[in-house]
């Protein structure tokens, strides 16, 4: 990114989101319009952008909007980090917490007169950004109420998404019961992130989760201890979202056998909106999913891991992080810059963000970057310990239940 960039580029014309995202954006528009007068009285503007950083609407002080237009901080221009560097909207889309970008913290010199605060609204299932709400001031400070207002707007909008997700979970359970009546194969109903809403007793054993225990609420859905299964479920959801008639199959290693087990995916829709898949075990039906090493259509992956050092936000590339360790509600990152606190709240959330970037849960307290594992030690009672690279050669324990997954991932 050229720091001498003076204007944001035009956004792409294609719309790559579903109707449910429009509901969220409309809700944000209602809240932004209500805040516009207060922000405008101090020369500020309120902006909404979609999950790609494309600006959709703007309110506030007319003079500031005119200055913003000179830098293309206006509708139909793109303010993602990839397009314009560090800025309130783009950096918020990369973060799971609200962000504040002041003056020279903007990557491009032409934007150093701006102070911006943004918060992203994320899908409660996939954790992908849907939209971002941003307040900007030119050559002045933001109103003192901005942080509270942004937080409340995000909280209220996320409640709408959680209610919708719970309804989606109920639809998945209904689809599971319908499939159960016509099939003797073990079954599980999974959401687009690979979390299980309901599995029968046999599928529960295969996945390492409780069987016949419904979990429609997205906050308590079951996470299988099988990264291959989660990856396949995410791929299946991507394919079904593009083609409602799609069905697919693959093979995975389960917790009970050293031989791969065939599984098939059938998508479930509610009012034209994909809510997940019903998975049949021991059945091979539909298009084959790519196997490890084959080309998989690209999907959004975390390019940065957000951490904090005192009052500064630190943006890390994934290779710079060796492992993450939980300490109560805090998560600490072992990085090339030392120990940093993660911006993600909880190790489960960080794991979900990094699963497709070469990170693996090896213990209830540890997620490791597999590319940073230098060696493996076997202790007297058969326990595995990972030796991480770096001068300290830090030892990371592997729990017994995760040991088979770790062995497969490291091919040992």
Task: Give an overview of the whole structure.
- The chain is of the alpha+beta class and 412 residues long.
- The chain folds into three domains: 19-144, GAF domain (Beta-Lactamase, 2-Layer Sandwich), CATH 3.30.450.40; 168-288, 2-Layer Sandwich (Beta-Lactamase); 305-410, LytTr DNA-binding domain (OB fold (Dihydrolipoamide Acetyltransferase, E2P), Beta Barrel).
- The protein is 28% helix and 30% strand.
- It has nine helices and 21 strands.
- The protein has helices spanning 19-40, 62-70, 81-84, 88-94, 146-181, 201-207, 227-242, 347-354, 403-410; strands at 44-50, 55-60, 99-102, 114-122, 129-138, 187-190, 196-199, 248-252, 261-270, 273-281, 287-288, 305-309, 312-316, 321-327, 330-335, 338-342, 359-363, 366-369, 373-378, 384-388, 395-398.
- Helix 1 (19-40) runs antiparallel to helix 5 (146-181).
Main sheet attributes: strand count, strand direction, barrel closure? 7 strands, antiparallel
**CATH class placement of the largest domain:** Alpha Beta
Spatial sequence of strands, sheet with the most strands:
13-12-16-15-14-18-17
Outline: globular
> What fraction, in percent, of the residue positions are helical?
25-40%
Strand composition percent? 25-35%
């Amino acid at each position: 990114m050229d720091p001498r960039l003076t204007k944001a580029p035009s956004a792409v014309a294609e719309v790559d989101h579903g109707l449910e995202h429009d509901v969220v954006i409309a809700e944000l528009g209602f809240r932004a319009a209500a805040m516009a007068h207060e922000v405008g009285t101090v020369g500020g503007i309120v902006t909404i952008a979609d999950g790609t950083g494309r600006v959709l609407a703007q309110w506030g002080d007319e003079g500031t909007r005119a200055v913003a237009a000179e830098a293309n901080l206006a509708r139909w221009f793109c303010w993602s980090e990839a397009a314009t560097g560090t800025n309130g909207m783009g950096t918020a889309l990369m973060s799971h917490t609200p962000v504040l970008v002041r003056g020279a913290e903007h990557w491009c010199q032409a934007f150093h007169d701006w102070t911006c605060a943004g918060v992203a609204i994320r899908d409660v299932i996939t954790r992908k950004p849907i939209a971002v709400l941003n307040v900007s001031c030119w050559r002045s400070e933001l109103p003192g109420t901005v942080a509270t207002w942004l937080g409340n707007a995000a909280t209220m909008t996320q409640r709408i998404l959680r209610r919708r997700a719970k309804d989606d979970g109920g639809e998945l359970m209904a689809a599971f019961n319908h499939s159960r009546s016509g099939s003797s194969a073990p079954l599980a109903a999974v959401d687009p992130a690979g979390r299980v809403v309901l599995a029968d007793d046999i599928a529960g054993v295969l996945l390492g989760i409780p069987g016949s225990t419904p979990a429609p609420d997205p906050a308590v859905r079951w996470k299988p201890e099988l990264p291959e299964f989660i990856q396949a479920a995410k791929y299946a959801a991507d394919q079904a979202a593009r083609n409602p008639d799609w069905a697919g199959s693959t093979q995975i290693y389960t917790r009970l056998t050293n031989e791969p087990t065939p599984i098939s995916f059938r998508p479930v829709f509610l009012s034209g909106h994909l809510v997940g898949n019903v998975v049949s075990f021991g059945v091979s039906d539909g298009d084959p999913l790519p196997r490890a090493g084959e080309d998989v259509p690209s999907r959004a992956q975390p390019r940065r891991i957000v951490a904090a050092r005192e009052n500064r936000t630190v943006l890390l590339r994934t290779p710079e992080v060796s492992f993450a360790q939980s300490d109560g509600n805090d998560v600490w990152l072992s990085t090339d810059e030392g120990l940093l606190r993660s911006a993600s709240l909880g190790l489960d959330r960080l794991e979900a963000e990094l699963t497709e970037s070469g990170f693996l849960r090896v213990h209830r307290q540890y997620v490791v970057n597999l590319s940073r594992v230098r060696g493996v030690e076997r202790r007297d009672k058969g326990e595995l310990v990972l030796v991480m690279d770096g001068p300290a050669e830090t030892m990371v324990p592997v729990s017994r239940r995760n040991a088979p997954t770790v062995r497969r991932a490291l091919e040992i």
